[in-house]
Specification:
Blueprint: H1 2-5, E1 7-18, E2 21-32, E3 36-40, H2 47-55, E4 62-67, E5 70-71, E6 82-85, H3 97-107, E7 109-115, E8 121-127, H4 130-143, H5 159-171, E9 177-181, H6 189-206, E10 209-214, H7 217-223, E11 226-231, E12 234-239, H8 241-246, H9 251-257, E13 261-269, E14 272-275, E15 278-281, E16 291-296, E17 302-305, E18 311-320, E19 325-331, E20 334-340, E21 349-353, E22 360-363, E23 368-375, E24 381-383, E25 386-388, E26 400-401, E27 407-408, E28 414-415, E29 421-427, E30 431-434, E31 442-451, E32 456-462, E33 467-472, E34 481-486, E35 491-495
Parallel strand pairs: 3-10, 3-11, 6-9, 9-10
Antiparallel strand pairs: 1-2, 1-4, 4-5, 7-8, 11-12, 13-14, 13-16, 14-15, 16-22, 17-21, 18-19, 18-21, 19-20, 23-24, 23-29, 24-25, 26-27, 27-28, 29-35, 30-34, 31-32, 31-34, 32-33
Length: 505
Amino acid sequence: MAMKDNVIISINNVSKEYDGVLVVDNFNLYIKKGEFVTFLGPSGCGKTTTLRMIAGFEKPTSGEILLNGSDITNLPPYERPVNTVFQRYALFPHLDVYENVAFGLKLKKVKKVVTDRKGNQKEVEVHLSKEEIDSKVRKALKMVDLEELEWRDISTLSGGQQQRVAIARAIVNEPEILLLDEPLGALDLKMRKEMQLELKEMHRKLGITFIYVTHDQEEALTMSDTIVIMKDGMIQQIGTPEDIYNEPNNAFVADFIGESNIYEGTMVGDKKIRFLNHVFDCVDEFPLNEKVDVVLRPEDIKLGLVNEGMVNGKLTSKVFKGVHYEYVMMVGRSEVVIQDTRNLDINCEASISVVPFDIHIMNKEFVNNVYDAYIDKNNNVVISEEAFECDITQLIPGSTVDDEGYLVDQKGIRYDLTDADVKAEVGLKDIEILDDEEEGTVVGEIVSIIYKGDHYQVIVRTDEDEDFVVDTEYTWNENDKVGVKIAPNKIKLTLKAEAKNYAKD
């Protein structure tokens, strides 16, 4: 109950539609008093819309927003104890610092009890006195370290100083909640880093609730008590910066919150997982043959001499990052990004090791089978060492295939895609399982059958340990040898490198 009493904002089952498009989908969140909460996600994920609904600038299509237990869903912005700081600070250029901060106070009315000539008391609304305004403005300016600049013109201030003026103007009304919509977006990198620390310190001094919106992961990790990761209008994960970084819920969170190596893996035993063509020990328990996403942080991978570690590969590039070097190692056709403080030669064989605790495993929600593949000399896509017919013109929109087998774009440029690395995606319902294995492009063994209520999800594993996950209405038996067939128009291809790398002319 103590935690519940400490909640200032509750967002319950809130959704928002624009012209039939759902931009916030069944959003649920509670925010505690004095907390620094950050909405983090890519552009268009719904984070600013959610902030605007808290502010009262937008009304939810459904759901409710509570402030201190009271419903404010339909309350206008000016009746909410909330102020907003925007990316564009909207300061008045013709007013100095003091007047910008004081502007709202001069319009504000407060309720006071007064006594008339007959001695009767009544409640009236009156403007603040000059003394009251001055006291509040000076307190706000002191809070943001601008008391020495109160008579300066706005145009003479730096970006960071202007941002502090905007914050002072927001806090001078003593709101319970301060909303900040990407307020550092207009600043340069150095100033942005400085202001991150200043905002964190400001939050500590004020003791009020901050709700912050950004797409910058570093900002979120630096300042927040709690981070809310959003994608497509939905919450992906809520947690502390440490939890979000170290224990991401899914591949999207892992990829968005920091640099990550993400691989598709298969559980092959008790706390044993196979990826990068190697079986690793791990600490997570998942069902046998479960397909999962595996995350390795670059800083958690140990780089060693060839045959010294668990997996061998070839170092293909390095970039100096100041405190470390960032290496790329190719393991087969898979890239592994590694951070190491040593200056090592590239184009040489090496190895990697990783301890079980640093292998992060997450549930995989299947929509498509995704494969690391390549294009052969006959313009087929090679998956699991077998060639599937496909439409390679999708790799360069508007292209055609000439008589010599080269792709030709609309400008007449020819491309030789032989041995080009691609990502191949195939839907779960777009793969056909055949009783007669000879009729399939690939032969495999059924290793898993899961009933999903109205269909079966079957995993067919090839001799090369490649898995084909198939949704089918038919029942099969484990250990059956079957053929796998995919129609050419069902294989979606994406080039891993830029098309210009394959230009022939």
